[in-house]
């Protein structure tokens, strides 16, 4: 079941988010990183991030975080899905697909049909799913040199 | 000279922004599209878009629009450079490079070092510049099917 | 066990090669296509294609076809691995990896260390393997319009 | 004028081919590299490389080298255009385009309609031309680790 993240999810959420950060090579995030992120998600600020989880009878199998932000071409803005993670032991069971659908549903309720995300070109398992539930665009990301 | 967009730029700004929209195949935008975009830029809402122009003695040679939006990994958020355009007759004179630097400077003043943008993989003239002033990341963009 | 393709493999080889052709959308190849390809592989012409199969106690689980061709930068030429296929029921057991290694070994025996192949950017299962046993280059393929 | 490379082109050919090698970071090739390549091109072996040059009244402005090699899917094989170079001072005058057309013509005479080449994803000037005279395929190149 996909539902909004809530205060009582703190422990299970952090376990998942840590797994996600480890996937990207940030396994050593300080506790403050998780504290701040969770506090922002719980603040329910319409202009900041929202969280959804996949709850399997009380056990969290996956999470996603998304935000609505302005776009000059669209009055209603766009929805950016930043984080998506499925617990290693729950892969292949449709968790990520359901979470993406959960974001689509939330975006529809907010009147923001345009949902997008970025993924590494070589995130093969992710892209197998994304090619089915979304479409690749020809856009690539540039960033200012740190 | 790079400077903030202002009310008196309306005509020159629209000429440029129309050129940019034509580049992306949206040459037939209604007047309301430009009216709304300009009004948003003039509202100077810290959470909405900002505009910079390249002013060559009163003649506008290029424009850029950027916005600061939240990022769950960074307290200060990130800066998204959405639009960048140089008038056809002013290409090759460093206009786009100066505009990007203008966004970098604005981002620095806002305490948001992370600036990014998206570009089509086959935007060769753009990428020749971007490879010099920024770095390509391995990230590609997926979007919900319309 | 990886070994050279031989005359008695005709039936099993065609079953595999048909599967491979179907993967690429050419499921309706005429019998002549297979006849010619097999005859060329059996001719053992040093300048034409060679075949290797993965033989699991008499049952063929996979095949690969490769050819040596000139390269103006290298006296010894290069080795092009054109076809690689694992039977659907034998996936995930290292068949493709062993076949690639078989080509590497054949190339070493021929004094041609440079082995390459081309794959679709979105061949995710293939690329998961290729990233481990080879390296991606920045080269992309252009072809004359048909 | 596009014509076949000939013995008397030795000096002008080497000047161009050195420029091309420098472009790829191989500016220090030994004389033997050029000796061997030129000898192979002059041998006119149907299975080895052929050379074309762009001759502007006795001055060579560009070169290309191509080879026909077997392909298991096509009886007639394919034509691989390996090298293409325009002298720095002759850019923007259609030299590369004419050379590619020269290879297309030679391939037609040989009954080999399929012509292909590989190029770096970030070879923007090249790709501006290639997108017009050919088509990009989704294929990327993998190579054995050296």
From TrEMBL, chains A, B, C, D:
Residues 1-146 form the N-acetyltransferase domain. The keyword Transferase applies. InterPro entries: Acyl_CoA_acyltransferase, Diverse_Substrate_AcTransf, GNAT_dom. GO terms for molecular function: acyltransferase activity. The keyword Nucleotidyltransferase does not apply. Its EC number is 2.3.-.-. It comes from the Bacteria. Keywords: Acyltransferase, Transferase. Pfam families: Acetyltransf_1. PANTHER family: ACETYLTRANSFERASE, DIAMINE N-ACETYLTRANSFERASE. This is GNAT family N-acetyltransferase. It comes from Paracoccus mangrovi. The lineage of its organism: Bacteria, Pseudomonadati, Pseudomonadota, Alphaproteobacteria, Rhodobacterales.
